[in-house]
UniProtKB/TrEMBL annotation:
Its cofactor is Zn(2+). Belongs to the metallo-dependent hydrolases superfamily. Adenosine and AMP deaminases family. Adenine deaminase type 2 subfamily. One of its GO terms (cellular component) is cytosol. The lineage of its organism: Bacteria, Pseudomonadati, Pseudomonadota, Gammaproteobacteria, Vibrionales. Catalyzes the hydrolytic deamination of adenine to hypoxanthine. Plays an important role in the purine salvage pathway and in nitrogen catabolism. CDD domains: ADA. GO terms for biological process: adenine catabolic process; hypoxanthine salvage; nucleotide metabolic process. This is Adenine deaminase. It comes from the Bacteria. Substrate binds at D276. Binds 1 zinc ion per subunit.
Amino acid sequence: MQDFIQKLPKVELHLHIEGTLEPELMFELAKRNQVNIPFNTPEEVRAAYQFTNLQSFLDIYYQGADVLIHEQDFFDLTWAYLLRCQADHVIHTEIFFDPQTHTARGIAFETIINGISGALTKAKQELGISSHLIMCFLRHLSEADAIETLQQALPYKDKIIGVGLDSSEKGHPPEKFTRVFQMARDAGFIPVAHAGEEGPASNIDDALNLLGVQRVDHGVRCVEDEKLVQQLAETRMPLTVCPLSNIKLCVFDNMQQHNIVELLRKGLCVTINSDDPAYFGGYMTDNFMAVANAHPMSHSELAQFTLNAIEASFISAEEKSRMTSEVTAYLSNFRAA
Ligand code: ADE
Ligand code: ZN
């Protein structure tokens, strides 16, 4: 199973680039940029990654991002993640970034976007990995702040396919961002949002109805509303599920309790993703392995997670068809061998 999963072509749809900052790179950038960090070794950093909920993670995660200052830093961060993609047979990835985490510290929007997209262009050319970028609004900040961020993004519209909504879900429901999402949709950005991670199933309903999202990030608390589950299955509304993240942030007690396989078998378009792999203990292969180890599953069910991700991605119909063929060929070759 390990070999099948390792080499299975994968598509990632829920990945925060700031969440790929490995402690070693954090130290390197801290030294390069003369930023103080409250740790002495990368091991000490890893030992601090014991989270009790989403907020306990976010506090450490935003602090870690302080070492990112120059365009080269954003390039190095993104390139390191793309090398992980190559090792994990990720053929396409749709990446979130949080501009407000950086612009609030005086980093120019241009610095962030040029560093990240420089690495994405190089990965397409040298590794054959395709990608899209999605800009997230931080939901603990105001809607006015999100509107300002949307305006800053407009000159870079060609580099950003969509807008998302992340950070603290409790106390910051989708409703708070109705107008900025309307503005983003009018400007041609595809909307997605984190909903039903720590927040109630009604946040999923509201993300669909008030924000018009085309994918729900996480969405695992949909099971609290049977009618919603049925609707998600019927409409094939994608959920970008992050198994290791959900365990690390105590959304489920353990992987056996995780509902991703139950949702797959109910016909929902669920996908496997790594969220913040440097903080949650693993990239794409690790997430697939963790699910497969806890839930006995067939090879075709495992491949279905990639087929769902291709269906849920924002690539063209031609690219979807090419990637689908790649996955079905992989599955039949594996069976034949
Ligand atoms: N930002 C980074 N990871 C996140 C998550 N899992 N939920 C909400 N905001 C995030
Ligand atoms: Zn996330």
